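Suppose a colleague, Dr. K., hands you the sequence of a protein chain of 263 amino acids and asks what its three-dimensional shape might be. Before reaching for any lab equipment, you can write down a predicted structure in token form. Begin with the sequence itself:
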Amino acid sequence: MHCFVFDIETVPDVAYGRRLYGLSDLADDQVARIMFTQRRAETGGEFLPLEQHRIVAISVAFRTRDSLKVWSLGDRDASERELITRFFDGIEKHTPDLVTWNGGGFDLPVLHYRSLLHSVPAARYWETGDEDTAFRYNNYLSRFHWRHIDLMDVLSGFQGRGRASLDDVAALLGFPGKLGMRGADVWSAFAAGRIEQIRNYCETDVLNTYLIYLRFELIRGRLSQAEHKAEIARARAYLAEAGKPHFAEFLAAWPESGRTEAK
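The predicted structure, expressed as tokens, is then:
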């Protein structure tokens, strides 16, 4: 296996909000409140347009031939440009398969807009066969190719009415799901300076996605029952040995038997 399961967390881009709505004299929380209010007036909900999101965390589960590692890119004070650069540098170096939950509808488009803003080059990611013919029929950008697997998209049969949330599918399979935080909580946590909480939350989302991906690899015949069992054991051992409280909490919420392992 050689995969790069990732997730991003975002907050309102208040600098853009100031320019967009002429709010130069207002504090960040006031600008964000106006952005949410404007969006609610337009759509009935507060989920901002993708170009109004600023990335504050990118977390990854990287499975190579020899190891599994789950972490958040950069440190807590890393700039958005550094986070994005590290992400695309990983693709440049390893050319991994990307795995997401709703990455095609959210994570990757946001990364596109923010890399455009920060002028972050990512030649390998944008390759479609001009320089490497292997990418002509299998690249990161085309919807039905396999270098990026959006599990939500694939498992729903690419049908909007068939889509389910990450939390619901994790619950279906007996995985921990979201623990104590939701996406809607990220802005308030960020405003309060709780960036480590956000990074930890992002890492647990990645873990849920990774476990669903392992089950998907089993049902499509790319892992045998024995290989799947070994991957689960590897994940459990990694979490137990990592010495991180949020991993210990995740492991405690993940029962040893039942729906969490394929029979």
